[in-house]
Specification:
Layout (H helix, E strand, L loop, with lengths): L3 E5 L6 H10 L4 H9 L6 E10 L2 E10 L8 H5 L12 E3 H9 L5 H22 L7 E3 H21 L3 E4 L2 E5 L1 E4 L2 E4 L3 H10 L3 E7 L5 H10 L8 E10 L9 E9 H6 L1
Parallel strand pairs: 1-6, 7-10
Antiparallel strand pairs: 1-12, 2-3, 4-5, 8-9, 11-12
Length: 266
């Protein structure tokens, strides 16, 4: 694909939002689902649908887990009172995740992108928890969600193969969010580690809650290779829905754009 792929992130960015926005740009759904079905792990299903966000029709990419990880449960994430959820989980390290990725039918270039995203996540989690990458373990339910999202992200960006990839400022919220380890500040420490290390543009809004997830930040860090052009022509738009109910529109816009200076040369 010729042109620049521009992600407009005024409602933040997460893995599923970015995947949905690229599906909306025209990714072959059958090939994407075939790739996801090749993941040698059980416990999830995929649903691609259309939903309304602020009255706008947008694409939704949903990784449906056999065991809920409460990632979209607003009361659990931000509520004051909550019930503890006790489940038995296997934990996987980065080497385990690499083996899972190598067992899929991703192309070699897409596989490299997926491994890079997970490595960025592992490095950020290691820094946040004061440990080393080889000792970082991804919680199984969360990892299933992340594995599917990241493999889908890698597949989509590889299929699109844009000349350049750029991102707007990543709009983040304020306050706290609950995770498996307890209540943490927003931006989450792993997210903050990624935006710091890779120089991602971050804007803190007045909205409460987490808008930039570690997976969303890792995706931006792994594929961003250009600044947003000052002036451009929009050739195509894809809209990807988020799952959490927030006071922002709740979608990412992915646009195929052509900078004006390139148009003048054609």
């Amino acid at each position: 694909m010729s042109g620049t792929l521009y992600f407009e992130c005024s409602s933040g960015i997460s893995g599923d939002m970015a995947v949905a926005s690229m599906i909306d740009l025209g990714i072959d759904r059958e090939r994407l689902i075939s790739t996801l079905k090749s993941i040698p792990v059980e416990g999830f299903d995929i649903r691609i649908s259309r939903v309304k966000k602020s009255g706008i029709d947008v694409c939704d990419f949903d990784v449906i887990l056999d065991e809920d990880n409460h990632d979209h449960d607003m009361e659990y994430l931000y509520g004051g009172n909550h019930h503890e959820h006790h489940h038995h989980h296997v934990h996987r390290g980065l080497d385990d995740v690499r083996r899972i990725i190598s067992g899929t039918n991703l192309t070699n270039s897409a596989r490299d992108i997926a491994v890079r995203m997970f490595t960025i996540l592992a490095e950020a989690e290691a820094e946040a928890h004061g440990t080393t990458v080889d000792r970082v373990h991804f919680h199984e339910v969360g990892a299933l969600d992340s594995i599917a999202d990241i493999i889908a992200l890698a597949h989509c960006i590889d299929e699109l193969s844009p000349d350049k990839v750029c991102f707007s400022e990543l709009y983040e919220g304020t306050g706290t969010v609950r995770c498996q380890h307890g209540v943490i500040p927003v931006p989450a420490p792993a997210t903050l580690s990624i935006v710091k290390k890779y120089g991602l543009p971050l804007r803190i809004s007045e909205s409460k809650g987490e808008y930039v997830t570690p997976t969303g930040a890792a995706f931006a860090a792994s594929v961003r290779n250009s600044d947003v052009p000052d002036t451009f022509i929009v050739e195509k738009v894809g809209m990807g829905a988020g799952k959490r109910k927030t006071d922002r529109p709740g979608y990412v816009r992915a646009m195929i754009v052509k900078p004006v200076d390139r148009i003048s040369e054609d």
